[in-house]
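Researcher: Let's continue the batch. This sequence belongs to Transcriptional regulatory protein, and it's 314 residues. Same format as the previous ones, please.
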Amino acid sequence: MGYSFTSSARVVGALLQRGTFRRVEDSSLILRRIEFLGSNLLVPSRYEMGYVCKTRNIWTTTPVCMGRRAAKIANRKGAQNAKKMKRNGKIGKEIVSAIKRGGPNPDSNTALAIVLEKAKQLDVPKEIVDRNLNKALEKGQEAYIEKIYEVYGFGGVSMVVDVTTDKITRSVQAIRQVIKESGAKMADSGSAMFKFRRARVVNVKLTDVDKDKLLAIALDSGAEDVIEPTIDDDDPEEDTSGSYYKVVCSSDEYSIILSKLREEGIDFEPDNGYELLPLVTIEVDDEAMDMNKELVAKLLDLDDVDAVYTDQNE
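Model: Same format as before. Here are the structure tokens for Transcriptional regulatory protein:
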């Protein structure tokens, strides 16, 4: 007899918080605590769960709280991994476009030389670079075009979808389909974009740098702002390994900040040319937040989509 871990955890969590158990008709689920190892629910206890004719032992702590923390960590790490994949994909598209417009020789094709140097700085895997160098020479492969689509999300949130595609019709159809299925709405050009500003951004992991040291470097280098990650002060055990400071600057100061960070031995993740930052962030309820995050995830699943920017306060 099998149990879904998620559903079992919910049942156990609900029953533990009420401090009781339930026994109903034969062939129905029962739960009985047979050993208690601590004075509160943060300490594991052993329970017996199963049907009247069958039982099995399970161990449990506080599944509801742990589940929320785990989901938060997974969301952050998943978002960073997705961002790297999309950034690498964008570099690949730029390689193809540069070759289509100026040929495969970086000595005579300045645009290709620049994008190859950027790929090196961003630590784009060699296999991705080589694959796109070959792809550009395939018969029928077209150059990529950059497009922006604007979306009204949920709870008053606006989104900007950054696209690089070799088939405009394909990309717009795919995006419209995702928007329609989610219940969101496409916005007219300019309806959402004015809520954002374009800036160069250096991402520095929270756990890799002392805050005061980073602020000093940013100030000395002429940065415009340092955006701190949102941390739950009520949760001292929160995993911050997926949290980043955003050092915001102009194009003129960007290389200076990168050099300063390298001199200090501080790891960082550069942007892919720019990021869109909201001028004002919007607070939404949990339901709208989850719906917006799901929509963003589905949009990022599309190969033509490089990034999705929102003004939702995370």
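Researcher: Any comment?
Model: The helical segments are 5-18, 63-102, 110-121, 126-135, 168-182, 211-221, 251-263, 286-300.
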